[in-house]
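Re: [help] complex structure
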Amino acid sequence: NAGVTQTPKFRILKIGQSMTLQCTQDMNHNYMYWYRQDPGMGLKLIYYSVGAGITDKGEVPNGYNVSRSTTEDFPLRLELAAPSQTSVYFCASEPGLAGNEQFFGPGTRLTVL
Amino acid sequence: QKEVEQNSGPLSVPEGAIASLNCTYSDRGSQSFFWYRQYSGKSPELIMFIYSNGDKEDGRFTAQLNKASQYVSLLIRDSQPSDSATYLCAARDYNQGGKLIFGQGTELSVKP
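Output below.
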């Protein structure tokens, strides 16, 4: 199993550009999450999904969108990138709330200039 | 707003000492708590979870939970330089899809 994979690893965007961060898991997990982590800070939840076709906002959803058309994939879309979106983005998954571990992907480091 | 607070670091301990990391949470309804370790430039990895009052031990790590005081801690015995990392405390919010609410993290440095 590859676990949770994310692409790209690094990206530099100009203000106003758009991009999609990809996240795929091969563990057949129902729950998937997108977090952002700013320097020296913990993780803030952007969006989450409890299954294909179901998504909901987290603490910091503004400027982002998600979709969940399959169990495996949970892409995060940035529209009109802003410098405030410079951060490291982590995708995570877990089988369900009875489980006790969220599995994290390696992260995407995004810089908006 | 539900919050998880961790003591600010960095925390520096000599090799072989006990490192004590602390965390408080605001939501009295929180049931499950997690400690993640994050090496610089890497993703978080789970060390331990705890949901019952008292202590839970796993090797050199002991998690302690006191729900009355809304307090969670992680003790690392016989600290090693390889334990140098940022430690993230998280509480699970079952009212919102089971999401984890993370603290800001405590940076631990173990000096040889």
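The CA atoms of residues 5 and 110 of chain A lie 16 Å apart.
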